[in-house]
Amino acid sequence: ATRIVSHLQITHLLQQNTVRITGLLNKEVPTRGSIELDITIANTTIKHRFIVVDCLTADLLVGIDAMEKLGVHIDFDKRMLKTRHGRTPFRDTPIPLESRQQVRVVKTKPIPANSISYLFMMYPLKLSSKTQPPST
To answer: Checking phi first, is residue 88 left (phi over 0); if not, alpha (psi -120 to 50) or beta?
Structure first.
């Protein structure tokens, strides 16, 4: 998320956070802070707080907490993300950060019923006027 925060020139909105993130072997992942952003998936928009770290290979990870808030249903057969307000097709190729408007899925992953799974996702980012950088 550091790349998105820098690209959008919104580092001034970073807030300290007390969240501890650990990876494999319980190794702690350093964080830069947290930021609240408006995100839109399949015509549904919410405000969500993201933890900003440097070590991601993706620009942004959307967790199950955000997916639940958005009411996202993943239809792997039709390759769609669906909400009650619309649908967004999976993408086969990435879109540059500067023009990202759709969801891209790296690979399809079946999720067994009554289980937990983490999905690697990229999605469009829309900023409200409250998240614009200050004028100079």
So the answer is: beta
Q: Which two tokens stand for residue 75?
A: 């239809």
Token pair, residue 131, equals 């998240």
Give the phi and the psi of residue 56 in degrees, each rounded to 5: -85, 145
For the chain, the 3-state helix, strand and coil shares in percent, each to the nearest 5, are: 20, 25, 55
User: With left for phi above 0 and alpha for psi between -120 and 50, is residue 135 left, alpha or beta?
Assistant: beta
Look at residue 136 in the predicted model and tell me its pLDDT.
Answer: 46
pLDDT per residue as tens digits for the range 27-59: 888 888 898 888 888 899 999 998 888 877 777
Neighbouring residues of 96: CB distance < 8 A, sequence distance ≥ 6: none
Q: How does strand 80-83 pair with strand 73-75?
A: antiparallel
Give the per-residue pLDDT at 72: 93
pTM, to two decimals: 0.60
